[in-house]
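User: I'm curious whether this sequence folds into something compact or stays loose and floppy. Could you predict its structure so I can see for myself?
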Amino acid sequence: MPDFEAASDAILAQFKTSLDSSRPNVPVSWPNIEFAPAEDFDEASNEAWARVSVQGAGARQASLGAVGSRRWRSAGLVYVQVFAPIGVGANQALAVADDVATALRGVTASSVRLKAPSINPIGRDEGYYQVNVTTPFEFDQTA
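Assistant: Here's the prediction. I'll summarize afterward.
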Protein backbone atom coordinates (compact mmCIF):
# COMPACT_ATOMS: atom_id res chain seq x y z
CA MET A 1 0.00 0.00 0.00
CA PRO A 2 1.66 3.18 -1.18
CA ASP A 3 2.46 6.39 0.62
CA PHE A 4 1.91 9.72 -1.17
CA GLU A 5 5.35 9.68 -2.80
CA ALA A 6 4.82 6.17 -4.19
CA ALA A 7 1.28 7.07 -5.30
CA SER A 8 2.56 10.14 -7.12
CA ASP A 9 5.34 8.13 -8.78
CA ALA A 10 2.84 5.46 -9.93
CA ILE A 11 0.49 8.08 -11.38
CA LEU A 12 3.27 9.94 -13.20
CA ALA A 13 4.69 6.68 -14.60
CA GLN A 14 1.24 5.69 -15.89
CA PHE A 15 0.79 9.14 -17.44
CA LYS A 16 4.23 9.07 -19.09
CA THR A 17 3.78 5.58 -20.54
CA SER A 18 0.37 6.39 -21.97
CA LEU A 19 1.24 9.83 -23.32
CA ASP A 20 4.52 8.61 -24.86
CA SER A 21 2.44 6.04 -26.74
CA SER A 22 -0.54 8.19 -27.77
CA ARG A 23 1.08 11.63 -28.15
CA PRO A 24 4.87 11.36 -28.55
CA ASN A 25 4.97 14.92 -29.97
CA VAL A 26 3.69 16.49 -26.74
CA PRO A 27 6.54 17.50 -24.39
CA VAL A 28 5.67 17.47 -20.70
CA SER A 29 6.62 19.83 -17.90
CA TRP A 30 7.19 17.46 -14.95
CA PRO A 31 7.02 18.48 -11.27
CA ASN A 32 10.19 20.26 -10.14
CA ILE A 33 11.97 19.65 -13.46
CA GLU A 34 12.99 22.74 -15.40
CA PHE A 35 10.85 23.36 -18.50
CA ALA A 36 10.74 26.58 -20.51
CA PRO A 37 8.01 26.54 -23.16
CA ALA A 38 9.86 29.11 -25.27
CA GLU A 39 12.85 26.74 -25.45
CA ASP A 40 11.39 23.25 -24.93
CA PHE A 41 8.31 23.56 -27.18
CA ASP A 42 8.70 23.83 -30.95
CA GLU A 43 5.47 24.57 -32.83
CA ALA A 44 6.93 23.08 -36.01
CA SER A 45 7.44 19.62 -34.50
CA ASN A 46 5.13 19.50 -31.45
CA GLU A 47 1.32 19.51 -31.31
CA ALA A 48 1.04 21.00 -27.84
CA TRP A 49 2.78 20.82 -24.47
CA ALA A 50 1.47 19.70 -21.10
CA ARG A 51 2.15 20.41 -17.43
CA VAL A 52 1.32 17.70 -14.90
CA SER A 53 1.03 17.86 -11.11
CA VAL A 54 -0.26 15.55 -8.38
CA GLN A 55 -1.95 17.17 -5.39
CA GLY A 56 -3.34 15.79 -2.15
CA ALA A 57 -6.99 16.44 -1.33
CA GLY A 58 -7.47 14.99 2.14
CA ALA A 59 -7.57 11.69 3.95
CA ARG A 60 -9.94 9.79 6.20
CA GLN A 61 -10.14 6.61 8.21
CA ALA A 62 -11.69 3.91 6.01
CA SER A 63 -11.97 1.02 8.48
CA LEU A 64 -12.05 0.23 12.18
CA GLY A 65 -9.72 -2.08 14.01
CA ALA A 66 -6.63 -2.28 16.14
CA VAL A 67 -3.74 0.08 15.66
CA GLY A 68 -1.66 -1.28 12.82
CA SER A 69 -4.61 -2.82 11.01
CA ARG A 70 -6.77 0.24 10.34
CA ARG A 71 -7.15 1.37 6.75
CA TRP A 72 -6.65 5.05 5.92
CA ARG A 73 -7.83 6.40 2.55
CA SER A 74 -6.01 9.32 0.95
CA ALA A 75 -7.49 11.24 -1.96
CA GLY A 76 -5.99 13.61 -4.46
CA LEU A 77 -6.18 15.16 -7.88
CA VAL A 78 -4.01 14.82 -10.96
CA TYR A 79 -3.93 18.10 -12.87
CA VAL A 80 -2.80 18.09 -16.49
CA GLN A 81 -2.78 21.44 -18.25
CA VAL A 82 -2.59 21.19 -22.05
CA PHE A 83 -1.32 24.18 -24.04
CA ALA A 84 -1.68 24.43 -27.84
CA PRO A 85 -0.44 27.36 -29.94
CA ILE A 86 -2.87 30.21 -30.54
CA GLY A 87 -4.25 30.16 -34.07
CA VAL A 88 -4.65 26.40 -34.57
CA GLY A 89 -8.13 26.28 -33.03
CA ALA A 90 -9.37 24.61 -29.89
CA ASN A 91 -9.58 21.12 -31.38
CA GLN A 92 -5.84 20.43 -31.16
CA ALA A 93 -5.75 21.07 -27.40
CA LEU A 94 -9.04 19.22 -26.91
CA ALA A 95 -7.74 16.16 -28.81
CA VAL A 96 -4.65 16.01 -26.60
CA ALA A 97 -6.84 16.49 -23.50
CA ASP A 98 -9.05 13.60 -24.67
CA ASP A 99 -5.98 11.35 -24.91
CA VAL A 100 -4.84 12.46 -21.44
CA ALA A 101 -8.29 11.63 -20.03
CA THR A 102 -8.23 8.23 -21.73
CA ALA A 103 -4.75 7.53 -20.30
CA LEU A 104 -5.92 8.14 -16.72
CA ARG A 105 -9.61 7.09 -16.75
CA GLY A 106 -10.37 4.15 -14.44
CA VAL A 107 -6.76 2.98 -14.23
CA THR A 108 -5.29 1.30 -11.16
CA ALA A 109 -1.55 1.95 -10.92
CA SER A 110 0.26 0.27 -8.00
CA SER A 111 -2.90 0.26 -5.82
CA VAL A 112 -3.72 3.87 -6.74
CA ARG A 113 -7.23 4.08 -8.15
CA LEU A 114 -7.77 6.82 -10.72
CA LYS A 115 -11.35 7.87 -11.33
CA ALA A 116 -13.28 9.79 -14.01
CA PRO A 117 -11.39 12.75 -15.51
CA SER A 118 -12.99 16.13 -16.25
CA ILE A 119 -11.97 18.19 -19.28
CA ASN A 120 -12.23 21.95 -18.84
CA PRO A 121 -11.38 24.36 -21.67
CA ILE A 122 -9.82 27.47 -20.11
CA GLY A 123 -9.04 29.60 -23.17
CA ARG A 124 -6.10 31.82 -24.01
CA ASP A 125 -3.14 31.95 -21.64
CA GLU A 126 0.11 33.72 -22.58
CA GLY A 127 0.18 32.80 -26.26
CA TYR A 128 -1.43 29.38 -25.88
CA TYR A 129 -4.92 27.92 -25.80
CA GLN A 130 -5.31 25.99 -22.51
CA VAL A 131 -7.43 22.96 -21.64
CA ASN A 132 -7.23 21.36 -18.17
CA VAL A 133 -7.80 17.70 -17.35
CA THR A 134 -8.51 16.96 -13.67
CA THR A 135 -8.58 13.35 -12.46
CA PRO A 136 -9.43 12.36 -8.89
CA PHE A 137 -7.56 9.43 -7.33
CA GLU A 138 -7.41 7.54 -4.06
CA PHE A 139 -5.25 4.97 -2.33
CA ASP A 140 -5.29 3.15 1.00
CA GLN A 141 -2.66 2.70 3.67
CA THR A 142 -2.73 0.44 6.72
CA ALA A 143 -1.51 1.82 10.02
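Summary: Helices lie at 4-22, 37-40, 90-104. The longest strand covers residues 71-85.
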